[in-house]
Amino acid sequence: MVVLVLVFLAAAGVFSLGVGLWAVCSHFITADIPAGTGHPVKLRFLGCIFQLLVTWGIIFEKLRICSVPQFVSFVHDLQPLKKDPDVMVKDLHFGTIPVKLYQPKAPSCTLKPGVVFYHGGGATLGSLKTHHRVCLRLSKDSGSVVVAVGYRKSPKYKFPVMLRDCIVATIHFLQSLDAYGVDPTRVVVCGDSVGGGVATVICQMFASCPDLPRIRAQILIYAALQGLDFQSPSYQQNSNVPLLTWSFAFYCLCCYLDINPSWQSTMKKGAHLPPEVWEKYRKWLGSENIPERFKKRGYQPVVPAPVNEAAFLETSVLLDPTCSPLITGDDVVSRLPEACIVSCEYDLLRDHSLLYKKRLEDLGVPVTWHHMEDGFHGVLNTLDLGCLHFPCSANILNAMTHFIKGL
């Protein structure tokens, strides 16, 4: 029996080593690590760790133990939560939706700004724990009451569950500002990645809600804002840059919107939409709306392939403004509050921010824009992450803080 146990342990060790080597080799073969991030070794290490987690997740999913997102999220949530003596943190529920409330302890004779924060993670990853450091620092540095929303995620919960959870939590907060000492004229919606997309949608939806306090501003950190065009300059330049590659972004899209993964190449070529749709939205999505300096690292305009009718029928949900808020009509976008937009040079979704910035400015909506020349998707989550901290994360937080204080 002892021999069998030793043999099993040895086999498990060899298998684990093999998985690790496979993940690392796969990363080195496929990943693009830009020197412009300033810390390419750190980014490569983070990329390897993420690739390893995904590889183990795939194995467990094949064994029907758990899904890839469940395993990766489980590991991400193992990190201990940081405490700050200057911020009071409470775990609450708005109805059945879990939220984390961050309140500065410093006494104040005036009402504080309020921030509703929607975390990123492609609607599959991320949690109240993964973004705890960001919300803690945001509350402390800006003197704001921050409410982080713990929405339900895919693949278990499909569209529009995540959005509905965020809408309900936001309404609950707006209806109880007095209880949290929040100034009703200084409420901000904020999010990173898919959370930035949620913040955009909620801002658009609530622009015509007279029964609720008006949202004062929106803060969008490398937000995901459209699912139509996958051949813009940033998609061509950053398709293999960690921590968001094209393949993983598409995986998250399929999980959330229940789209068959077999359409990946079809959608990348633009064959999921008919010519009249491309023509209708070219005025907002066309590469001519992106400044030339963002095309210098390589860009070749791609004419969309002939439409695949089956793909169009199965992916037409992407034309819903709640999925692609970048294509919401001018009548709505023109009434939005001012925005703070943060884009990152080495981000797959960089052009989403650039295009939305232009749309807002063209319609007279004030925009404060910060472009992180050394930034990549997910860099904000390295804030206060010890030796894996990227200075860019602190720069983004400082931009957010400065914007809120100026309201």
TrEMBL record:
What is a GO molecular function of this protein?
Answer: carboxylic ester hydrolase activity
GO cellular component terms, semicolon-separated: membrane
Q: Which SUPFAM superfamilies match?
A: alpha/beta-Hydrolases
Record: active site: 193, 347, 377
Q: Which Pfam families match?
A: Abhydrolase_3 (PF07859)
Alpha/beta hydrolase fold-3 domain location: 115-245, 313-380
Q: Which domain of life is it from?
A: Eukaryota
The UniProt keyword set, sorted, is: Hydrolase
Q: Which family does it belong to?
A: Belongs to the 'GDXG' lipolytic enzyme family.
Record's protein name:
Arylacetamide deacetylase-like 3
**Organism, scientific name:** Sciurus carolinensis
